[in-house]
């Protein structure tokens, strides 16, 4: 029996995949639990159309992410912090502060978890921070920490 899966089933296949299963398993479990539908010509055509839409959407998201990465690459943001002796900061500059400044400066809405800072910044100077925008797409920005007047 050929069926089209409505959801991912471990050991069987992924959602939208057309698979061949035993008649009893297909009829008594997959179809009854609505985990699959019969693979008719119309159903297969519908699944292909849905997959094409998903692929187009992913391609558009990837292009948008690449454009954003290109615009952010090499940009510099400046953070003003309170400084103690020998250029050491009171506290530290974290991903959250960097994220807020980038979102404010470039009018974006990025999540702080996308910012990959090796360690929090505890001194004045220039550091780099990697921003993971999309799987496989990232940008590197410069962060300049200066003393607050």
Could you describe the 3D structure shown?
By secondary structure, this protein is α+β, with helices and mostly antiparallel strands. It has 2 domains: 2-66, Ribosomal protein L9, N-terminal domain (Ribosomal Protein L9, domain 1, 3-Layer(aba) Sandwich), CATH 3.40.5; 68-147, Ribosomal protein L9, C-terminal domain (Ribosomal Protein L9, domain 2), CATH 3.10.430.100. It is 36% helix and 32% strand. It is built from 3 helices and 9 strands; from the N terminus they run ββαβαββαββββ. It has a 4-stranded mixed β-sheet with strand order 4-9-8-6. A 3-stranded antiparallel β-sheet has the order 2-1-3, sandwiched between helices. A hairpin with a 2-residue loop joins strand 8 and strand 9. The longest helix is centred in the middle third of the chain and has 32 residues, at 41-72. It starts with a strand and ends with a strand.
SSE map:
Layout: E1 2-5, E2 18-20, H1 23-31, E3 36-38, H2 41-72, E4 76-81, E5 88-93, H3 95-106, E6 115-116, E7 121-123, E8 125-134, E9 137-147
Parallel strand pairs: 4-9
Antiparallel strand pairs: 1-2, 1-3, 5-7, 6-8, 8-9
Specify the helix fraction band: 25-40%
CATH class of the largest domain: Alpha Beta
Mean pLDDT metric: 90
Overall shape:
elongated
Would you count the extended β strands for me? 9
